[in-house]
Design brief:
The protein has about 475 residues and is α+β, with helices and mostly antiparallel strands. It contains nine helices and four strands, in the order αααββααααββαα.
Length: about 475
């Protein structure tokens, strides 16, 4: 099976996998609870979902990485294998409702002793014996009529399991695309932070040289003290330590991304040199649309449907079964006559079996299935509630992060102007050392914060796409 098309085949043609006579279990999403009319953080909803969000976020570079992960990630392969297993289980679920045909060849040779019979001529200790042979060929047909729908309920449960696995595969694909995107963004930020840290080291060294030069002049008006020289040198060492920290973060980001791609984590992946711009806000749609679109919700609903059908199957176990059997073949005492129709035999039979005493097993099984259905319903309701919460929090975070990035961007602009002014004042002999060092520190810190905030906004966009049920199609 093409792993990338598995979820589509499961959703569109799963009924064909187990037989055209089996209808899917009814949809039970309505039991999850009512959906609000709109999102609290976005009153005007737009229909639809962006399934090209990876391309809009990172272009062809990120697209290629996600495609590689889809083909090589071991976790996704395991999810695809679970779909294959569910397909096989669904195909075999209705076997009991179909006729079973078996062919057999048999042969037997036996000796019998007749003890205690008053037959003369055998002697006082003789035992009369007989050796016989029998051979046969047969075809046997058996079929249990599904009068009450017990087998059909089991087939519907298996079909619902298959549909749930298909949706979980879709969810795994979407989650993998999100993980690759976040790792790619983390590496891009780390690369930019390294450049910023290198610039900080250069600025700190230039400042230290300038302050040391002032210290050597020993001019009371424009000179620098020994403590100021030490402070500048401390800033150089701190900047160099920060640079090593940024390089370590980039190394970790490379290895994490390589693991997601199914590669050995050798830290050879270069990644993007810069973070992309934040793309346009995705269409959020309506909360009710989320119930019909998000794969983990659809999987939880199908799991509830499967649990319900298994409870039905357990209830129908109280009803009588009606198996039919038929066989035809030959029986002969000579092997050469095994296919001779003159030695033909046949039989027809039927049986009606009603459970009476089963030691409480049937009742216990029904109680187990009832409890499983209740658990599946509670799980669906919790998954839906979590999904609504994830969307609401991502929408709110998008607004807060955008405002925070704007404020930090404005502060960074002012800090750059302030640092440039302090540098000019100090070079001209009008400024003091502490003002210069503080201005440069504030500039570097705000630049780093601005990068991190942009990455957090991009991360949150990935989270929002995932929360809205946005799949990514190659």
């Amino acid at each position: 099976m093409n792993r990338f098309l598995a979820f589509g085949l499961v959703s569109a043609g799963s009924g064909m996998l187990v037989g055209c006579s089996v209808l899917p279990a009814p949809n039970r999403m309505g039991e999850a609870g009512a959906a609000p009319g709109s999102w609290s953080n976005q009153r005007q909803g737009k229909a639809g979902i962006d399934d090209r969000w990876v391309d809009r976020l990172g272009g062809r570079s990120l697209h290629r990485l996600v495609a590689e992960a889809y083909g090589a990630n071991p976790d996704l392969k395991a999810s695809a294998a679970r779909v294959d297993r569910a397909v096989a289980a669904a195909r075999g679920a209705g076997a009991a409702a179909r006729p079973q045909l078996n062919a057999a060849l048999q042969g037997n040779r036996q000796k019998q002793n007749f003890i205690g019979l008053p037959i003369s001529g055998t002697g006082s200790s003789g035992v009369l014996s007989s050796i016989s042979e029998s051979y046969g060929a047969s075809l046997s047909l058996s079929w249990e009529i599904d009068l009450w729908g017990k087998v059909r309920a089991g087939e519907q449960a298996a079909l619902a399991d298959l549909q749930a696995q298909g949706e979980l595969y879709r969810a795994a694909r979407a989650s993998l695309a999100a993980q690759v995107s976040r790792a790619w963004l983390a590496l891009a930020e780390s690369n930019e932070q390294i450049v910023l840290a290198e610039q900080a080291v250069k600025i700190r060294k230039d400042n230290a040289e300038l302050i040391f030069g002032r210290f050597q002049t020993a001019d009371s008006d424009t000179g620098a003290s020994g403590s100021q020289v030490r402070l500048a040198q401390t800033d150089v060492a701190t900047a160099e330590a920060t640079l090593q920290q940024r390089k370590g973060e980039a190394d970790q980001a490379r290895r994490q991304l390589e693991i997601l791609l199914g590669r050995y984590p050798s830290a050879e992946l270069s990644g993007s040199a810069k973070l992309p711009e934040v793309p346009a806000h995705p269409p959020a749609g309506l909360p009710s649309e989320l119930l019909m679109r998000r794969p983990d919700l659809l999987a939880a609903e199908r799991q509830l449907a499967a649990a319900g059908k298994r409870r039905t199957e357990a209830k129908l176990a109280y009803y009588p079964s009606f198996p039919l059997t038929a066989s035809a073949g030959t029986t002969t005492n000579e092997l050469r006559n095994i296919f001779d129709s003159d030695f033909g035999v046949w039989s027809l039979g039927g049986r009606l079996a009603q459970p009476i005493l089963a030691g409480g097993q049937l009742r216990a099984q029904e109680e187990i299935r009832t409890a499983e259905e209740k658990e599946a319903l509670a799980n669906l309701q919790q998954v839906v509630l979590n999904a609504f919460g994830e969307v609401e929090m991502a929408l709110a975070a998008d607004q807060f992060l955008a405002e925070r990035e704007g404020s930090v961007g404005e502060a960074l602009k002012l800090a750059i102007e302030g640092a440039d002014s302090a540098q000019q004042d100090f070079a001209g002999g009008a400024g003091d050392v502490l003002t210069l060092l503080q201005a440069q520190s504030r500039r570097i810190e705000l630049a780093s914060q601005h990068l991190t905030l942009r990455r957090l906004r991009l991360d949150n966009r990935v989270t929002l796409h995932l929360a809205l049920g946005g799949d990514y199609r190659l």
